[in-house]
Design brief:
8 strands; alpha/beta; TIM Barrel; 2 domains; 8-stranded parallel barrel
Length: about 350
Amino acid sequence: MLNSNTTNAEDLRIYQIIDANLDRAREGLRVLEDWARFGLSKEKYVEKIKNFRQILGRNHLEVYKQSRNHLEDKCKGLTHQEQMNRKTSEQILSSNSGRIQEALRVIEEFSRPHNHELSKIASEIRYEIYTIEIDLLSLSKCKKSEEILKENDLYVITDQKDNLINIIEEILIAGVRIIQHRFKTGTDKDHLQEAIQIKNLCERYNSLFIINDRVDIALASNADGIHLGQEDLDLKTARKLLGYSKIIGISANNEIDISKALNEGCNYIGIGPVFETETKKNKKPIGIDKIKSLTEDLNIPWFAIGGINKNNISHLKSNGFKKVALVSQLMNSEDPKEDAIMILKELSHEN
């Protein structure tokens, strides 16, 4: 514990340093706590960060607080231009995480000679913050992707085309904000190069880029997420590999598979086929009524898929279908940009 029987000038300067950095650490922790609470709704992180604040508060001894008035701080009020450049939640999280880590390191060093318990606490919390920063940044990135899923009703899936990159750019220009890329023939090297091209395009247009099935290529191309079918890698394993910055979508067409996907934390579901489709010739349509029943209480985004085109979207909308996924309608279009614009308008119309 603190050796309080020495009150020379050097001790006062050290106490003042500890006092200032305890305040800095707790302030930074409050920024992270409030983002975990209001920005992410992640109770686990709120509780953990709040506990760190309370621990530091209990160890903010009166002798540290009293040192504030003993020595004048001639640098009080100094700011830095970089503080004005924090415009995104990610920048705010990173800067405050750094502030906490730096403050705790100062406390750890200066309290070690006379308050070993506080030094140890500062060290333990500092290492925890390294992990929490990464987790909160990952969750924030995923949150942005989830918002795009909620706000956009047209989900486009690619097919193999010689001019695929041009088609994708045309539909992105039209306003499509979700692209899923499926691989057909070719080598993994070709697939990765193509995925990186599409990822760069999607980034330019602030759109989601999702890879079908291939977790390795999703990671290598820095895709925003992955879509898995019932025969693909299981969701839990995919999440371990991808972490929490990526979204994971699941194809499902029955109560059991939908319930499992929800319990394992998928971000959205593709349900179908609604109608007969050339893309999945071996799959029997489950129909509008069945999909309505399956999605009645679904509280995450879901997209109807299978045989959907510009001629039947209004019928789907009249039955309460708000989001659709398309393949052939746009991949085989003579004017994908114009068709995408028409479909987006159709989807945005109220019935």
